[in-house]
Write a structure and sequence with these properties.
With about 180 residues, the protein is an alpha+beta fold. The protein has one domain: 3-Layer(aba) Sandwich (Aminopeptidase), CATH 3.40.630.30. The protein is built from four helices and seven strands, in the order βααβββαβαββ. The chain has a seven-stranded mixed β-sheet, with helices on both faces. Helix 1 crosses helix 2. Bound molecules: coenzyme A. Coenzyme A binds next to strand 4, helix 3 and helix 4.
């Protein structure tokens, strides 16, 4: 049976960083590289992830298939000076390597990010996605994200403008467990 696990990570071993970079390359080549149009060279990719782990307002989640990192997502919080928007977070860079799709990793990552946002006291989670990403749109809409707007000039890919869809989800309030213990 295939073991499917998601976790929030504060550090990455060299092996994990290599696997995450391989999976990121594949996700970029597949056509949605959270900004990158072509895979950057390996040292830049490793530096990118090391940087993410250093930024307090960014949290990295990874998905493993039989122990190997094959998927990822990030939760971005507003910077501390932006107190007015501290109630919301942004889900971004949410992808699964093409060879690892269909095992439920994307949904598990989404649930992990939502749970973390709630634990941090956030009441809203935002995201935006290229209008061409049908699978992701299906996933977000099926999980309670409301489409509130579309930006026609969202991303420029091979000289062609692609629209982006913007979503927000109101998170259920996290009740404190009143049970003794
Ligand atoms: C979207 C994506 C993350 C889904 O990954 P996945 O591991 O296959 O997803 P899961 O197995 O967890 O499936 C969860 C749900 O996603 C949706 N989904 C997944 N593949 C789909 C497809 N081919 N067509 C339509 N919906 C699909 C469904 O709602 C599915 O739920 P269901 O199985 O109950 O129908 C993956 O296709 C991907 O990485 N796409 C490119 C990156 C991207 O678009 N990211 C979003 C913006 S950053």
């Amino acid at each position: 049976m295939t073991a499917v696990v998601v976790e929030r990570v504060g550090e990455l071993s060299d092996q994990d960083l290599g696997d995450l970079s391989d999976a990121t390359d594949a996700a970029i080549l597949d056509g949605n590289g959270f900004g990158w149009l072509r895979p950057p060279d390996r040292s830049r990719l490793r530096a990118y992830y090391r940087g993410i782990l250093l930024i307090p307002e960014r949290e990295l989640f990874i998905g493993r298939l039989d122990g190997t990192i094959v998927a990822s997502a990030q939760l971005w919080r507003a910077p501390r000076n932006n107190e007015a928007q501290g109630f919301s977070g942004t889900l971004t860079a949410h992808w699964v390597a093409p060879w690892a799709r269909g095992h439920g990793l994307a949904r598990l990552l989404l649930q992990a990010v939502e749970a973390r946002a709630q634990a941090l006291g956030m009441t809203h989670l935002k995201l935006d996605v290229r209008a061409s990403q049908d699978a992701a749109i299906q996933l977000y809409e099926a999980n309670g994200f409301k489409h509130w707007g579309t930006l026609p000039a969202y991303a420029k890919i091979d000289g062609r403008m692609v629209a982006g869809r913007f979503y927000v989800k109101k998170l259920a309030r996290k009740h404190k467990n009143k049970a003794i213990n």
